[in-house]
Amino acid sequence: MHAAASDFAARLRTPFGVVGVRTAGDAIAGIDYLPPAAGELAPRDRLAAAACRQIERYLADPDAPLDLPLQRAGTDFQRRVWSRIAAIPRGRTRAYGELARELGSSARPVGQACGANPFPLVIPCHRVVAAAGIGGFAHHAAGFHIAVKRWLLAHEGGGRR
């Protein structure tokens, strides 16, 4: 997702960069991983403030829940994938192929659904990995986003299967 700077209701500095929070009424419209240069933005509404508090608690304790109202998004298939991702416990990972077999699909569409996830952290797509390695993240195969995925997995306990 490439949201304009003005689209964010908050931008929170984290150990791995900045987390941008977008709101729409009484729901989270999206969460984006941004490079450190994006800078902070104080929450502009109560929901963005609540999201920042929950994210800060998660960053301090990976067992802290992220329970935010999410705007309806995605196709039926994407929502099925996201539901499976949301069920992966902290400290664990699942392979794209494993999820694909459960959904009667193949790994590539599962990977595409992971990359299209508008609510990372709440729907922890960083917990989905390749059969042999870390895999991609947010439609990226290298660079900043992969560093974020590695940080999140380490924060949660190493990503055991």
Describe the structure.
This protein has 5 helices and 5 strands. Strand 1 and strand 2 form a beta hairpin. The strands form 2 sheets. Strands 1-2-3 form a 3-stranded antiparallel sheet, covered by helices on one side. It is globular, with a radius of gyration of 15 Å. It folds into 2 domains: 56 residues, no CATH class; 80 residues, Orthogonal Bundle (Arc Repressor Mutant, subunit A). The chain has 161 residues and is an alpha+beta fold. 34% of the residues lie in helices and 16% in strands.
Based on the model shown, name its key terms.
three-stranded antiparallel β-sheet, 161 residues, alpha+beta, two-stranded parallel ribbon, Arc Repressor Mutant, subunit A
- Report the sheet with the most strands, covering strand number, pairing sense and barrel closure: 3 strands, antiparallel
CATH class of the largest domain: Mainly Alpha
Could you estimate the helical fraction of the residues in percent?
Answer: 25-40%
CATH fold description of the largest domain: Arc Repressor Mutant, subunit A
Low-confidence stretches: none
CATH architecture of the largest domain: Orthogonal Bundle
